[in-house]
Amino acid sequence: MKYLSLLFSAAIVTGLFASCAGNKDLQEKAPATMENAYYTTQNKELTLHIPVITIQTNRVNLVGVYFRDKKSDLFKSPDSPGVYIAKFAMGKPDMIMSSDPKEEYGNKMPQKMEKMNFDLEDDEAILIFTQNSKMKYYKLTGVKERV
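Above: the chain sequence. Below: its structure as tokens.
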């Protein structure tokens, strides 16, 4: 009987830890004050826009984003101050195929699908950031298309 209760207790504790493990790195609090993220599509390219109102750049660095099974780096928009953008290739890019390797120089590598530890809907993205040199993740929701 002792062993049965010990086994039962161990199973409960293991279950509790296993259920928390999937989202252990997902932060509840946003790393910056942001407006709703949105995306635009143009010429076989999807651009995710994340408008940031305030961010502590000495502690927080926005690194990248997972969106629709792809991963991309984030960078500041040259056109809109305070907006971070990520670009994702849609469809197959046009490739130059030639017997002369110099003509193929401008071809871009295809963007591959990324394996994520998070289950996301089409209107959700995972923001990858570092805070005090530790890698963290935050879920963005309600990502809509703007025309």
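Residues 4-23 have pLDDT under 50 and may be disordered.
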